[in-house]
Amino acid sequence: MTDLLTLNPLTPLHETVRRPLYTETTTSQALYLPIAPPTLGTAGAVIGRELYSGKAFIYCPFSAFGDGLPGGNAIVMGDTGRGKSALTKTYTARQIRLGRKVVVLDTKEQKEREEGEWAALGRSLTGKAPIKFTPGGGCDASCINPMDPAIAGKRQIELVRTIVELGLGRALDEFAGSALRLAIRRAHQRANDAGRTPVLADVAAALRAPEESDATAKQRTRDELLNDGLEASYVLDRLCGTDQDATGDLIGILDGPTSLGVDLDADMVVFDLTKVPSGGVAMTILVAVIAVFLEEVWLRPVCECGTEPSQHERQIVDVNSGAWELGPNPESGCRRYTQRKRILVCEEAWHILGTPQLASLLEKFLKFARGYGLSCIFIVHHLSDIDDSPETQAALKMADTIIVYSMKKSEAEDTVRRLGLPGWTAEHITRLRRGIALWVVGEVIYPGVQHLLTEAEQHLCFSSGSMADLTNTSPDPE
């Protein structure tokens, strides 16, 4: 073996060879932070390499779960153009090859393409266009119906009440809530008699024309029941419009039957929200409806073999207690029920985390992600974009993986303070180069993880076309 101490300091070999580092105790290992973090195993999606050890960096919250990683939720942050979106896009694409399902809430528009920046990746993986929402509708616009039969009865009542309360800006009292429940039931009945699916306008109409029998059942007069629900009917009119007024916030988005193009069975489903005004009531309500729609349809339990739990045999694992687990499915040849894993990506997530009502709605996804087999990924620029509301802080605390790209000093210090990271990481974050991030996985810190892309991925992940020079043949992806 070549003795490194005898090398000529000016030779090229000296410039590239590192001296071997020997450690024998955990104390001495702690002195050399770059070599202390353990690997995350060999199962999962390849991210790139860990710079200080030179090892490949492989990450999968489903494979690492239980081994120092309590859950699969993650938050990705950093200045513009440092590599956040490129990382998330390639990571989800590589996870799809491992059999995962992905849904993206895309609020980041590429002006030159007039669509969200995830549209190209979604088409390349599934051949399907994104589910695009446009206020007022249009030829390519999609619609989701909160009254769709795919949403269970009780859950549907809760959803419509949430829509009304978000539009109203406050909670409904008991009288208004009771009138709304009755109107939803009547809307279903009247629509079924007409041979169609009910929509929100049917609920508004039922609120303005209550049945005498419903009033009697609630020990109210018909006029009293009408007054109970009148304000809620006005809110739905303002949101969904009427025959005389087509200026509602939700027209073309939530006011009609669910579009045939809304297919949640694809490997990647992209909801393009780029045309919906951010921070407005329409965005808040739309994300709330999508969240419930995903919970009721997309997150239904299903095995990785594609069959439902009921098609798998029960196997007793403890005779004394009667405890059992789902075993094989003879028809599909599956040997054991394994919950299909899913990933939910929220691009420009300050739209969601910065709104207490939305943060509270998605808190259920975060809190019960393990039961769903779900990993939620939120992409933001800085934590300063997000308020300090209890709902937002609760969502941040449930992020088990934190990925931080380069930031300015003030933002880095604020991030370290709010996330409770060690003090040395603030200065370190400001020094990170493009494409390199600090990862915190559970309790373990990886100071420098370099994300690597293939040539094909660079074209699909490039999101800075408006700023790129035409002479630049190898643009750096965002």
Task: Tell me briefly what this model is.
By secondary structure, this protein is α/β, with parallel strands linked by helices.
Please name the CATH topology of the largest domain. Answer: Rossmann fold
What is the residue-averaged pLDDT? Answer: 83
Strand content: 5-15%
Query: Which runs of at least 5 residues are low in confidence (pLDDT < 50)?
Result: 1-34, 472-477
* Span between termini: 43 Å
Shape: globular
Task: Kindly provide the radius of gyration, computed on alpha-carbon positions and rounded to a whole number of angstroms.
Answer: 26 Å
Major beta-sheet overview? 11 strands, mixed
Broad CATH class of the largest domain: Alpha Beta
- Estimate percent helicity: 25-40%
Oligomer: single chain
* CATH H-level superfamily of the largest domain: P-loop containing nucleotide triphosphate hydrolases
Side by side, the strands of the main sheet go: 2-1-15-14-13-3-12-11-4-8-7
Q: Which secondary-structure class do the elements indicate?
A: alpha/beta
Total beta strands: 15
Protein name: ATP/GTP-binding protein
InterPro entries: P-loop_NTPase
Organism: Streptomyces formicae
Report on the architecture of this protein.
The chain has 478 residues and is α/β, with parallel strands linked by helices. It folds into two domains: 48-137 and 267-302 and 336-461, P-loop containing nucleotide triphosphate hydrolases (Rossmann fold), CATH 3.40.50.300; 153-240, no CATH class. Helix content is 37%, strand content 14%. The protein has 18 helices and 15 strands. The strands form three sheets. Strands 2-1-15-14-13-3-12-11-4-8-7 form an eleven-stranded mixed β-sheet, with helices on both faces. Strands 5-6 form a two-stranded antiparallel sheet. Helix 4 crosses helix 18 (455-461), helix 7 (174-193) crosses helix 8 (200-208) and helix 16 (409-419) runs antiparallel to helix 17. Mean pLDDT is 83; it is low at 1-34 and 472-477.
